[in-house]
Amino acid sequence: MSIPATTSQGQRPAIHVQGLEKSYKELRVLRGVDLAVARGSIFALLGSNGAGKTTVVKILSTLLRADAGTALVNGFDVATQAAEVRESVSLTGQFAAVDEILSGRENLVLIARLRHLRDPGVIADDLLRRFSLTEAGARRVATYSGGMRRRLDIAMSLIGNPPVIFLDEPTTGLDPEARIEVWQAVRELAEGGTTVLLTTQYLDEAEQLADQIAILHEGRIIVDGTLDELKRLLPPAEVEYVEKQPTLEDVFLTLVGARADKEQR
């Protein structure tokens, strides 16, 4: 495996992927994915349904083996050092994996005990405080709103302080207020030094959160950069003699649409 390039801060990336490929029988899902995620950053992987976002996350979290290519997570090879990778990461899926019968605090204490950590009650209380759930901590999760459940789910994934966390479409099905609550929780993760790889279909989510954005289309990364860099790919539009900067939605639809038109010719 080649040595990953360093980031602009002189550090090796938290996640480094080269030439990742995956097929299910005749269906090629990933066709050579390359990406690098800086430590302590929020990286948004954008794509439509079926683009391959969840497949990338499953490979990086060692739940799935790639057919070709290499991937390092926190410096460990996902193929040959799976145990070390699992100790370095946490995965939060599209639906909150919480026990509704238990209280929020009991959910956190349970996970801390399963991981054989000392002082599980102290760990639970600290996470309840970090995610603004202290007042609801003694209540059964069945009484929580969607945003509260998702915040608790993310809090549970942080037990053990993993340096890298994968959030696979974390705001699916949430109302606008709950989405904003989750966004704030994600921002606080990155501010605390956690590296976040976020998959999403919501373009405004990527605009609000991401330091770096990659668009995955038909198994390939077709563009990768900051929001400003992506916006510069399209010229500004003039509306009634007023310059209008392109949105991320304009960039996404133009690039994906242009690629689809080209492949149909």
Describe this structure in words.
The protein has 265 residues and is an alpha/beta fold. It has helices at residues 53-60, 82-88, 104-114, 120-130, 146-157, 176-191, 203-209, 227-231, 248-264, and strands spanning 15-24, 27-37, 42-46, 68-73, 76-77, 89-92, 164-168, 195-200, 212-217, 220-225, 237-239, 242-244. It has one domain (15-264): P-loop containing nucleotide triphosphate hydrolases (Rossmann fold, 3-Layer(aba) Sandwich), CATH 3.40.50.300. The strands form 3 sheets. Strands 6-7-8-3-9-10 form a 6-stranded mixed β-sheet, sandwiched between helices. Strands 2-1-4-5 form a 4-stranded antiparallel β-sheet, covered by helices on one side. Helix 3 (104-114) packs across helix 4 and helix 5 (146-157) runs parallel beside helix 6. The longest helix is centred in the C-terminal third of the chain and has 17 residues, at 248-264. It is globular.
Query: What's the arrangement of strands in the largest beta sheet?
Result: 6-7-8-3-9-10
Spell out the helices and strands N to C. EEEHEEHEHHHEHEHEEHEEH
Mean pLDDT: 86
The radius of gyration computed from the alpha-carbon positions, rounded to a whole number of angstroms, is 19 Å
